[in-house]
Hints:
Layout: E1 12-13, E2 20-24, E3 27-33, H1 43-52, H2 57-68, E4 71-76, E5 79-84, H3 95-104, E6 114-118, E7 121-127, H4 131-149
Parallel strand pairs: 1-3
Antiparallel strand pairs: 2-3, 3-7, 4-5, 6-7
Helix pairs in contact: 1-2
Amino acid sequence: MEYSYRYWYRPLCILEYSYRIVLVRARIVRALDYGKAFDTVSHPRLIEKLKVYGISGKLLQWINNFLYSRKMRVRVRNSFSVSYVLSGVPQGSVLGPLLFLLFVSDLPDWIRNSICMFADDTKIWCVVKQVEDYLLLQKDLDSMAEWSEE
């Protein structure tokens, strides 16, 4: 039952710091969706996290080159604009989603309540018996916002 939540919520963007509270049998669920999550991954922060996970040497250099040597080209009529991609992971690749998962894998360490993550969708929930339970859930949201800005 915990994973059948998609039919009753529409995720909102945490980057805009808006959310929706859903009350289900005295359980508050906050469903969050990082807007353009794959496009906003910080390259320097991702490289630092990969170092913490023990990735180094030629593999780290290869991933670094994979991220930093990408260009984006936009065509409008007969004119082209070319610019370097400064953030994000390529979604059409095999490596991109894996890098994103490594990037967000420390998020549950910031959360005290129950958390369920799938790609860029995150659900935090708790049973509310007293006001302190709700305040703890709010602290988790504040922690997520802090994690996003770090």
